[in-house]
Amino acid sequence: MEERSGRYVMRVLIVEDDINLNKGIGIVLEELTDEICSAHTLEEAKEIVLNEEIDLMVLDLNLPDGDGLDFIKYLRNSLYSFPIIILSARSLESDMILGLKLGADDYLIKPFSLIVLKEKIRAIMKRINKEEHFTYEDEHLNFNFDKLKFFVDGREVDLSKTEIKILQKLIANRDIIVKRENLIDAVWGLEGEFVDTNALSVAINRLRKKIVYKEKIHNEYGVGYIWKS
User: Low-confidence residues of the chain, pLDDT below 70?
Assistant: First the structure.
């Protein structure tokens, strides 16, 4: 995303089955965005995400063909990291907490102010615009997490989604011990409590073999792991 003449250039996907509300949100956001995509079902939304580069999603939860929370879970497990704002008539605190834990960036309860939604999106745009692309490079390793390209001594290696999540968490906290429970939460989220305790160790051992320089990932026994920069 870039900024031109004070106007942020980005593509927003609105997933809302109420046609009038979908259209109304689009009209309000026109001045902020270059392109607005609309979907009225999860199937339509998934098709757009797979074929377009989406920068931000506004998502209703109660859709004709499923629950928006399941879609958030799918997106985050598929490593889509664009911000998501939930719109929902579900006002229980437990629903809000679950949505945020699954990976949403904000949660608005219906009925809501379109102006408030607009300003929330403007704030997210500013935040995104300031963020640097997440990469890592040293003498032997070159990782680009935005493009999902990973090279060891110039040779591209294929990493699984689990391995990428582990690597990203460790490098984001390089030279700092990341506790096992924090790694499990980053990789498996709410399902972490059902993950076999040995699953993390197995995944990290596979990752070490792939990046060759195994000493980069140091095991602090009984505590967690640390990426040595």
Answer: 1-9, 128-133, 190-195, 197
Interatomic CA distance for residues 84 and 86, integer angstroms? 6
Spatial strand order in the sheet of 11-15 = 35-39, 11-15, 56-60, 84-88, 106-109
> What is the C-alpha to C-alpha distance for residues 23 and 27, in angstroms, rounded to an integer?
6
Helices and strands of the chain, counted as H and E runs: 8, 16
Which residue type does 48 have? I
**Do 32 and 120 fall into the same domain?**
yes
Report the pLDDT value the prediction gives residue 129, as an integer from 0 to 100: 62
* Chosen domain end from 81, 96, 130: 130
Residues 161 and 205 in one domain: yes
What is the pLDDT, as a whole number, of residue 130? 52
Last residue of a domain, one of 101, 130, 159: 130
Tokens of 95: 């629903």
49 contacts 71 by C-beta, under 8 angstroms: no
Q: Are 102 and 78 in contact, with CB atoms under 8 Å apart?
A: no
CA distance 194 to 131: 33
